[in-house]
Design a protein that fits this description.
Oligomer: heterotrimer
Strand content of chain A: under 5%
Structural class of chain A: mainly alpha
Radius of gyration of chain C: 25 Å
Chains: A mainly alpha (302), B mainly alpha (288), C alpha+beta (468)
Largest sheet of chain A: 2 strands, antiparallel
CATH class of one domain in chain A: Mainly Alpha
Helix content of chain A: over 70%
CATH class of the largest domain in chain C: Alpha Beta
Radius of gyration of chain A: 25 Å
Number of strands of chain C: 13
Number of helices of chain A: 14
Structural class of chain C: alpha+beta
CATH architecture of the largest domain in chain C: 3-Layer(aba) Sandwich
Shape of chain A: globular
Strand content of chain C: 5-15%
CATH architecture of one domain in chain A: Orthogonal Bundle
Chain lengths: 302, 288, 468
């Protein structure tokens, strides 16, 4: 009986391959092949001047040398990371606090459903439309300046988009708004999953809610926190829509809000495939390294 | 009840104070989330002349007129809306169905490269799509698929993140005995998948369908590189074009209406499905 | 066993696809470009034959590529038999006119046009570009290729175009002396000032009196100071005066593959920096909402610079409460002569609507009656010397926006003087990047060298073949 069954299982198992076919085929065609082609392109001079195609001419590592001879790539990396951190820190703090409140039965917060709905809302908004909205709202003659002037807080319009830190803050703030709701709900669900007897025990021992939070909740949440951090970091490295539309692709002032992907987009837009390819390879490596660091960091302590 | 009260007063901060603090912060945060959309709504109802005179919190009466102005302009936003809708719906359908299938293959069957595939899919999850954009663009132009929705829809079949979610969900929701039972009843593997597994996975499929829909709806990077023809453009591209204001001859009322048009439908759908969506996010966390 | 077969299959598939990817990428562009040219020329021959045939043989779809609605609105108002269907389509007889409008920012219009021109040979007849519009800033890029059809091939003769201003032909004549485009307008620019502000601050709104206060850059900057004291901005943005300086340069933007910043453009930087620092003007992007606030009295802007199309098409003349709506602008020559924009119509090689294209070009750019109507209805300055001179002398013609002034004599004089010998194919990218970069300098975010570096960087990203 058992033997017959095992034989059957083996014959069923070919379906494992069959069911994998769509994924493998599509992945090969639309992801893996493009990835290798991108790598391949990085060794060529290949662009379009007007309506004339230049190249492709094999130039070896010349594109990489050009990129690294210029400090710009590090500036754009720094910009990207700064804007990510500026959004991520408030995001994780606010999410932890809200998550703790939502999951704390003793608080008995009313209207939880309403608040959860509201804070998740910005996550669904088209980043392009959101950035466009902020651009119009924060322009020199826009509503925000008008409101601030009506309130008498400022006497003349503040140039939000002409100052390094206000522009970066706007980008970070938008990223924060778009993601903190998502993180809150993730963390809340994680907190709900913690065994309540732990809290009860702590309560008996006379721990304050702050102590409970730092000594029990936070350590137990580590896996989810790491998950949030990795996904956020990867998302942060891909930051594009918001700064691109907010600054009309210039990354002004003085390219202090130019992200890596915006830079890549510039080369793609002017059909400079050689440099674009080299930049993609570098991005691939940076992302890979950062992910690896975070993975290692999270595994070591477990 | 009484005992709880006394218990809580012993804590660092009184329960009432904490509750008030929580409400204050929540209201503040909600205000931050909603304020922009309120300003957007108000400004969409005002004429350009009124907008130049400064902000007021009271809506005006030009909504319809602004809308008619947009419709008379060259920005084909209704068409863009349908394009976005089509792309997002197809992506969501393909992505969830095939991700379920991939997850099913890894979850139910036992074959040689199973472990390798699982590790592989997990590893490629972190590759940003933009990194492959260049090769992808070349591929698309070689296949003559520029100005076509296929390169925006079909790649959704291979979605590592959705796969991962489905796999996690199956672990708790799909007992292998069920598949065995179907086999004994003589059901073919493909039929079992379609008639038993997919219906069972409905909650997960619904949640992922919504996420895929939203991310496809909001996608700007890839469509902007592939779609050049006005007839094919999706909403985010059209929104980005608003930056060149000579398009609307400086009618800010029309700009606001256009932005509102691209945002409010999503908000309405979200409000209808909100309970579902919020639960879905939480579900992903417990398992992920 | 299975494992081995499958992994072997996988590796071969991967290798094969890599090879395919590499191989095709190597050959594809070269093949495509070498194919495109002969295909285009054979089609050109075909289309000239077609031109002689009755229109019934032609395509049913006329595709027009443009970056804004100007030409469309001219066709709607003045081309006999044009019916508007909706925002992006129209009908002429049984031919559907399709407008493909992409804004020109960040080279988006050109990139889109390039992509479609390169595909022109393979496109289905109804998808082929029939006409496209170009600006002086990058006219050379298109004129010097085979993608534009010689105007003579459409059956339009030199005699047909005899009344046009010479400079409008010079711009679109390729290196072999072949005319590749035609324009219906001339774009000599003037200084457009607010009459109310002129009366209040300068004591008179008479163009001759105002001209005295803006006769050269020194008096211009002195007047800016006066305006500032009276609570007005001289111009809405530093970018307003940019064209006036950049049209009076002594050399091209790109010389021998190197980017060269002309002295006169550096003078713009110097003058503008002083004005911005003194808060006599702002740093808005042209065409932004903030910049256009000066079209209304509350914007407190004294003057703008622009040609005829700007006055009528862009200054919100049909919006209540605007200065243009009240007819409160005036026009005078300003410190230096300049031109701005101008739209040329080109026929795309491979068009299947040659005779319709020919008719549109002839009607819009040579028909004196239609052109006179354009001047009367839209206050545009048309490309027809005798018609314009007649109207300049006509005391019954008055521009409503300019408070009853007849500015045509001023435009006529300007049009004769326009010299476009310093245009290059890179002008749009250079002009746009230069203004973007200098904005940072004006706002004090960097010093002059930093801004120049930023400019070079941006241009080299746009045109990888250039250096500085």
């Amino acid at each position: 009986m058992a033997k017959v069954k095992r034989g059957k299982v083996v014959s069923y198992n070919k379906w494992g391959y069959i069911f994998l076919i769509p994924f493998i085929v599509v992945y090969l065609i639309f992801q893996l092949v493009p990835l290798f082609r991108t790598f391949y392109y990085s060794f060529f001079e290949n662009y379009r001047s007007g309506l004339t195609q230049i190249g492709p001419n094999f130039v070896g590592l010349q594109n990489f040398i050009t990129i690294f001879k210029n400090p710009d790539i590090w500036i754009y990396t720094e910009n990207t990371l700064i804007m990510w951190i500026m959004g991520f820190i408030p995001q994780i703090i606010v999410s932890l606090v809200l998550g703790a409140w939502f999951s704390d039965p003793s608080l008995r917060l009313k209207g939880q459903r309403f608040f959860k709905t509201v804070i998740y809302l910005p996550n669904l908004i088209m980043a392009a439309a959101f950035a466009m909205l902020f651009f119009t709202l924060f322009s020199e003659g826009g509503p925000i300046n008008e409101i601030l002037m009506q309130l008498g807080w400022i006497s003349e319009p503040y140039k939000f988009l002409s100052n390094e830190w206000s522009t970066r803050s706007l980008v970070a703030f938008m990223n924060f708004l778009m993601w903190f709701g998502n993180t809150t709900i993730l963390l809340m669900a994680g907190m709900m999953g913690i065994d309540t007897s732990l809290f009860e025990a702590a309560e008996v021992d006379g721990a304050t809610s702050t102590q409970v939070f730092f000594k029990i909740t936070l350590p137990l949440l580590r896996p989810i926190l790491i998950y949030v951090m990795i996904t956020s970091l990867i998302g942060g490295l891909q930051m594009f829509d918001v700064p691109q539309i907010l600054t009309n692709g210039t990354g002004d002032p003085m390219r202090s809000t130019m992200t890596l992907i915006m830079y890549l987009n510039k080369h793609l837009f002017s059909k400079n495939y050689g440099m674009g390819g080299a930049l993609s390879v570098i991005l691939f490596i940076i992302t890979g390294l950062l992910s690896l660091v975070v993975f290692k960091f999270s595994n070591k302590k477990d | 009840m009484l005992s709880i009260e006394t218990n809580e007063t012993k804590k660092g901060m009184g329960i009432h104070a904490r509750r008030i603090l929580a409400y204050v912060v929540l209201i503040l945060v909600s205000f931050l989330c909603l304020f922009w959309f309120y300003v957007l709504f108000v400004n969409a109802t005002r004429s350009h002349g009124e907008l130049t005179k400064g902000f007021t919190p009271i809506p005006s009466t030009y909504l319809l007129k602004n809308w008619q102005g947009v419709m008379a302009g060259t920005l084909p936003i209704v068409r863009g809306m349908f394009n976005s809708l089509f792309v997002a719906l197809c992506s969501a359908a393909l992505c969830t169905y095939f991700s379920t299938m991939t997850a099913y293959a890894i979850h139910v069957y036992d074959f040689k490269i199973k472990k390798f595939m699982f590790t592989f899919i997990m590893a490629v999850m972190t590759i940003p799509t933009q990194v492959t954009a260049l090769g992808f663009l070349q591929l698309v132009s070689d296949m003559k698929l520029e100005d076509n929705f296929i390169p925006l829809i079909v790649p959704a079949i291979a979605a590592p993140v959705t796969f991962f979610y489905m796999k996690q969900y199956m672990e708790s929701a799909l007992p292998l005995s069920l598949v065995e039972a179907a086999r004994i009843d003589g059901s073919g593997e493909f039929r079992t998948f379609n008639t038993i597994v997919v219906p069972l996975m409905k909650p997960a499929i619904a949640v992922q369908a919504i996420f895929t829909f939203v991310s496809s709806w909001n996608n700007y990077f890839t469509p902007a590189l592939i779609l050049h023809n006005d007839k094919m453009k999706t909403l985010p591209i059209l929104i980005a074009q608003l930056r060149s204001a000579d398009f609307l001859k400086f009618d800010m009322g029309q700009v606001y209406v256009t932005i509102a048009f691209s945002i409010f439908p999503v908000i309405v759908v979200y409000l209808i499905l909100s309970k579902f969506i919020v639960q879905g996010v939480a579900m992903g966390s417990v398992k992920g | 066993m299975k494992k081995k077969v499958l992994s072997a299959l996988l590796t071969t598939a991967m290798l094969a696809s890599m090879l395919v990817g590499c191989g095709s990428s190597n050959d594809a562009p070269a093949a495509a470009s070498s194919e495109a040219a002969p295909a285009a020329s054979t089609e050109a021959a075909a289309s000239t034959e077609v031109a002689a045939e009755p229109a019934a043989e032609e395509g049913k779809v006329l595709n027009i590529y443009a970056w804004n609605e100007e030409f469309k609105s001219r066709l709607i108002a003045h081309y006999p038999g044009y019916e508007e269907v909706d925002g992006t389509t129209g009908k002429i007889g049984d031919v559907t006119v399709k407008w493909n409008i992409t804004p020109s920012n960040d080279n988006a219009y050109q990139n889109n046009l390039d992509a479609n021109l390169l595909k022109q040979a393979d496109a289905a007849a109804d998808d082929k570009i029939d006409m496209f519009l170009i600006e002086a800033d990058y006219a050379l890029k298109y004129v010097d290729t085979d993608y534009t059809m010689p105007i003579a091939d459409l059956g339009i003769t030199d005699a047909d175009l005899a009344n046009q201003y010479q400079y409008t032909k010079d711009i679109v004549t390729d290196s072999k002396g072949v005319l590749k485009g035609v324009s219906w307008q001339g774009c000599p620019g003037v200084l457009i000032y607010s009459r109310d502000v002129a009366k209040e601050v300068l004591g008179s709104d008479d163009p001759a009196e105002v001209q005295k206060a803006v006769a050269d850059w020194d008096t211009f900057t002195a007047t800016a100071e006066t305006m500032k004291k009276a609570g007005y901005f001289m111009t809405s943005s530093a970018n307003d005066t940019y064209r006036v300086y950049s049209n009076n340069v002594s050399g091209k933007w790109v010389q021998d593959g190197k980017i060269v910043v002309d002295d006169n453009i550096m003078k713009w930087v110097e003058d503008s920096k002083k004005m911005v620092d003194a808060k006599e003007t702002n740093t808005y992007d042209l065409w932004s909402d903030d910049w256009s606030k000066g079209f209304y009295p509350d914007g407190k802007v004294f003057c703008y610079f622009g040609p005829a199309w700007f006055v009528d098409f862009s200054m919100a003349a049909d919006t209540d409460g605007s200065i243009a709506n009240a007819g409160k602008w005036g026009a005078t020559e300003g410190p230096q002569g300049f031109f701005w924009g101008g739209t040329w119509v080109c026929a795309a090689q491979g068009t299947d609507n040659a005779s319709l294209v020919k008719d549109i070009i002839l009607k819009m750019t040579t028909d004196t009656d239609i052109m006179t109507d354009i001047v009367k209805d839209d206050n545009d300055f048309v490309n027809n010397v005798p018609a314009m001179e007649a109207m300049a002398a006509d005391t019954s013609y008055a521009s409503k926006v300019l408070g009853g002034q007849n500015p045509l004599a001023m435009y006529c004089a300007g049009a004769e003087k326009i010299d476009l010998s310093n245009l290059s194919a890179y002008d749009q990218g250079c002009n746009e990047s230069f203004q973007n970069a200098m904005k940072n300098y004006f706002e004090g975010k960097t010093d002059l060298d930093g801004a120049l570096d930023l400019f070079y960087k941006a241009v080299e990203e746009k045109y990888p073949e250039l250096t500085h």
